[in-house]
Structure formats: structure tokens, C-alpha cells
Design a protein that fits this description.
The protein is of the alpha/beta class. It is built from 3 helices and 20 strands. The radius of gyration is 16 Å and the shape is globular.
Length: about 190
């Protein structure tokens, strides 16, 4: 028999009965009513998820070493991991965390895109209106100023974002906000 927690599974009735939102150390996740949480997402401990945010299949958010505060319209896509050290983690508003991203930092500002398979390491602070390129590895304790484009392994901070990239950041999550509402309405 197939394990109902297997993340590659179809959304079966048996799997839907598994509760993957868990308390630990006396802390229970707090999730806004309007947020969409996939049945296959795992959320543990001291986690707060804001209005119109979404957590997609096989994403893991683990608030067992410190509090994780996730703002409004934050979209954490499939197979991403969000965790932090003792100082906690704050994710702002209108943040898009792509597929397969590892977030293990201190702060992500507002209107930020973390592209697929990027890794954000310990004590990193990312400012507002920033883009982290796909596959980038942001080294520990990096301070990324507002309006930065971050790329490479190890990541380098490139010239300021402006023009089309800036406009994209302002509206990047609108599609996921809409899609999350549709998934929630459909009971998926």
C-alpha cells in the first residue's frame, strides 16, 4: 500500500484525512482564513501565515527553532522548505518563493521574488523589491539592500532593479493569489 504522505501522490480521500499542520513545543500554526494550504503541505510549530497567502504541495514550513511570520500574499511553491534559527524569520508582503527553494534566513522584505531552486542561508536579510535568481546561493549573514538583483553561486548583488523588472515585482504574485482562491474554492 502506498504511503499517504508521499508527496508525489494523487489527492486521495485517505491522504486528505492526514493532518499535516502540527503543534510542537506548545506552539501551533496560525493560518489566516483566506490562505490556501495544500493538503500535501507540512506546517509545524510557531508559524503565522497571513491573508491571501498560499502554501503549495510538498512545501514544508517548520517553526521549531524560532518563530516564522509570513505576511499577506506570500506564495510558497511546491517542494520549498522554510526554516530558521533561534532568531526567527520574517517574510514580508507580496513575496513569491519559487519551486524547490530553501529559505533559512532572518528576513525577506516586501515585493520579493526568490526564483526556483535558490538557497538563502543563515542570518541573510533581503530588502524590499529584490529578485534572487534561480539556483542562486546567498551566503550566510549577507545583507541584500532594497532593489537588488542577486545571482550566482555564491550569490553576488548586481545593479539596482528598475523598469520592467521593478514593475514585474509589484504584480508577480497576482496570478498565484488568484490561483490559490480557485484551488481553495475547488477543495483541491
Amino acid at each position: 500500500m502506498r504511503n499517504p504522505l508521499y508527496c508525489g501522490r494523487q489527492n486521495t480521500t485517505a491522504a486528505r484525512k492526514v493532518n499535516l499542520i502540527k503543534s510542537i513545543f506548545g506552539k501551533t500554526p496560525r493560518i489566516a482564513e483566506s490562505a490556501y494550504i495544500s493538503d500535501a503541505a507540512v506546517i509545524i510549530g510557531d508559524v503565522e501565515i497571513g491573508e491571501e497567502s498560499s502554501v503549495w504541495p510538498c512545501a514544508v514550513i517548520r517553526g521549531d527553532d524560532g518563530p516564522i511570520r509570513i505576511g499577506r500574499e506570500v506564495h510558497i511553491q511546491d517542494n520549498s522548505v522554510v526554516h530558521c534559527g533561534n532568531g526567527g524569520l520574517e517574510i514580508g508582503t507580496k513575496v513569491n518563493i519559487g519551486h524547490g527553494v530553501v529559505v533559512h534566513c532572518r528576513r525577506i522584505g516586501n515585493n520579493v521574488l526568490i526564483a526556483n531552486n535558490a538557497t538563502i542561508l543563515d542570518d541573510v536579510e533581503i530588502g524590499n523589491f529584490c529578485m534572487v535568481a534561480a539556483g542562486a546561493v546567498v551566503p550566510p549573514r549577507t545583507k541584500v539592500p532594497d532593489y537588488s538583483f542577486v545571482v550566482g553561486v555564491p550569490a553576488e548583488i548586481k545593479p539596482e532593479i528598475h523598469g520592467q523588472r521593478l514593475e514585474y515585482l509589484k504584480e508577480a504574485g497576482a496570478h498565484y493569489t488568484w490561483k490559490a482562491k480557485e484551488y481553495k474554492k475547488a477543495g483541491v
